[in-house]
Amino acid sequence: MLDAVSIICHTDAFRMIINNAFLSIKSHIFTIFFINQSIEQLKMRIFKNISLSILVLSYLAAGANHFIHPQGYISIIPSYLPAPAVLNYVAGFLEIAFAVMLIRRPTRKVASYSIIFMLIAFLPVHITMLQQSPIKIGTLMVTPAIAWARLLLQPLLMLWAWWHRE
């Protein structure tokens, strides 16, 4: 009997069965890994699309607000900058334009970097707001804590725009 088992184990058919079993197990492990990886990629893509939508809507709203409530913005533009009303409308237009550019993939990279540069250009406004706080802007009272929060938020907004560059 022992010789019969030994003969069966050494036949090509037995080796083929074992090899197929191992290939099948490897295939299942790969499939499970691939499906889990795909699900994680899908979750990240959904999260990134939601984030991008929020970013676009935020810049559309902020840009429109420059036209709806210009006095609030004009009042915080540093006095050493010329034509504060014009600068306000240019800023509003650029925020809307960059938001629209974020929507389409071919213009997203330019929009992302443009938003970063725009946020850098807005830093003097936030510093002036901090220096003048507490200050009333429209119906909002900007306290020193709010002014600091707005200033410290700028790098996070820059990172958010940068994350959507591609």
TrEMBL record:
The chain crosses the membrane at residues 16-35, 47-68, 80-103, 110-129, 141-163. It comes from the Bacteria. Keywords: Membrane, Transmembrane, Transmembrane helix. This is DoxX family protein. It comes from Mucilaginibacter lutimaris.
